[in-house]
Amino acid sequence: MDKFIIKGSSVLSGSVRISGAKNAALPIMAACLLTDEESILHGIPPLSDCLAMKSILESFGAMVIWNPLKQSLIIRPQGIKTCEIPYELATAIRASFLVMGPVLARFGQATLDMPGGCNIGLRPIDLHLKGFAALGAKIDIEHGKTLASAKYLIGDKIYLDFPSVGATENIMMAATLADGLTTIENAATEPEIVDLANFLNTMGANVKGAGTNTIKITGVKHLHGANYTIIPDRIEAGTLMAATAARGGEIFLEDIAGDHLKPVIAKLREMGVDISESANGLRVKSPGFMYLDATEIKTMPHPGFPTDLQAPFTSALALVKGNSIVTETIFENRFMHVPELVKMGANIKIASRSALIEGVECLSGARVMATDLRAGAALVIAAACADGTSEIENIYHIDRGYYKLENKLLNLGVKIERVSIDASIEKVV
Length: 429
Ligand code: UD1
Fold this sequence. Notes:
Blueprint: E1 2-7, E2 12-17, H1 22-31, E3 39-42, H2 48-60, E4 63-67, E5 72-76, H3 87-90, H4 100-107, E6 109-113, H5 126-134, E7 138-142, E8 145-149, E9 157-159, H6 165-175, E10 181-185, H7 191-202, E11 206-208, E12 215-218, E13 227-229, H8 234-247, E14 249-254, H9 262-271, E15 274-278, E16 281-286, E17 296-298, H10 310-317, E18 323-327, H11 337-343, E19 347-351, E20 354-358, E21 367-369, H12 373-385, E22 389-393, H13 396-399, H14 405-411, E23 415-420, H15 421-428
Parallel strand pairs: 2-14, 3-13, 9-10, 17-18, 21-22
Antiparallel strand pairs: 1-22, 1-23, 3-5, 4-5, 6-8, 7-8, 10-12, 11-12, 14-16, 15-16, 18-20, 19-20
Helix pairs in contact: 1-2, 1-7, 4-6, 5-6, 6-7, 8-10, 8-12, 10-12, 11-12
The chain binds uridine-diphosphate-N-acetylglucosamine.
Uridine-diphosphate-N-acetylglucosamine binds next to α1, α5 and α6.
C-alpha cells in the first residue's frame, strides 16, 4: 500500500510525454483473442489494469510477453483452453467484460462473472448483452455468471439506447467474425473506439464509420495477427492540463493530438488558459487559479466533455473565484472526491447530479483518501495547489490508470513523493 505525500508546489513547467491510452489498450489487448496468430502491441503502459488484462488473456491459455521498458507486448493466443475467466480476474477490472465479444466470436461461447472496476455507479452490461443477442447469441445468467453461446454469429442492425463505449467495442469485436453486415447505430464515438477499429482493420477486419454514430462491420472468415501502436492517453493529458490550469505555469504535452481534447481545450480557453496546438503537441500556459474564470461543465458522451476529467476539473474549479457548476450525466456516483476536497477547505455542495462550487482563496493540505481512479487524480491536483502538505492514501486506484504519475509531476515541478505505508509507519515509530 503506497501513498502520495504532496507539498503545495510552485508553478508547473516543462515538457511531458503522455503514456499510451489505457482505454485503448484494454479493448485492443482483448481483440487479440480474435485470431490464433501473434500480435505485437506498442505503447501499452504497465498499469495495473493492463496487467490485469494480461492475466485474463493468460488465464485463457494465451502466451503474453511484456517488455515494460519498451512498453510493448507480444500476445500469442494459440493455446486457448477455456472460455471462462476466473472470478478473481473478472471482478478485478470493469474491462474484463471486453473479452466476451472476441471469445464468443472465435469459440462460440464465453462465460464471465459481473465485471469489477471503479465504484462510480451501477454500470450494468445490458447493452453488451442485447448486442450479442441481436447477433444470434443465447444469453443465460445463472449464479451471478453470464454465459453467451452461439454456433455462429449473424450480422444485424443494433441500436444502442445509450452510446456506451464498452458495448460499442464489444459488439464491434464480436461482429468482425459474424456472418454478413452488422450496423451499430447510436454507437460511441470516442477516439479509443476509432483506435480499436483501426486495430481490427489492421487484423483484416472490415469496420467502417468508427468515430461516427453509425458503425458498419462486414464479417470476415478469419483475422490475422497485427503490429500496432496505440494512441496517447487523452485523459492523462487532460489531467495534467487541469493541474497546470489550476497551479499556473507552462507545460508542453508531446505528441498529443488536440483533436482528441476539443471539449477540454474549449473549456480551458473559456476559463482563461492559453493553449496552442502544433504538429508536435500541445502547449498549455495558465496564469493560475486566482486569474481564471468560473465556468459550467456538463459531462457528455464524446465529443462532449469527458466524464473521466470531471473530478480533475472539479478540483481546479474549487479554487477559481466565483461560482462554477459541474454536472455529471454519465455515472450516478461520481462525486466521491467532493467530501475529500471539502476536508481540504473547498466549498462544494452536491445537488442531485451537480456540484455547486464556490471558489475559495486557498485549500489547505490534509490527509485524504482516493476513492476511485479519477477522484484520486483530482486530489493530487488539489494537493499540488494547497497550502501545506497533503497525504493521499489508497493510491492503488491512481495506479490503475496513470503510469508513474508522480515522476511526470515531479519533472514538471510538483513536490510529490510516493511512500510505502509500511515505511512511513516505521518512520513514525
Ligand atoms: C468507458 C471507459 C471509462 C469512461 C466511460 C465513459 C474504458 C475501459 N473505460 O467505460 O473510463 O468513464 O467509458 O466515457 O474504456 N451503461 C448501461 N448499460 C451497459 C453499458 C453501459 O446502462 O450495458 C451505462 C453505464 O452504467 C454508464 C454509461 O452507460 O452510466 C456509460 O458507460 P460506458 O460508456 O459503457 O462506459 P465503460 O465502457 O464502462
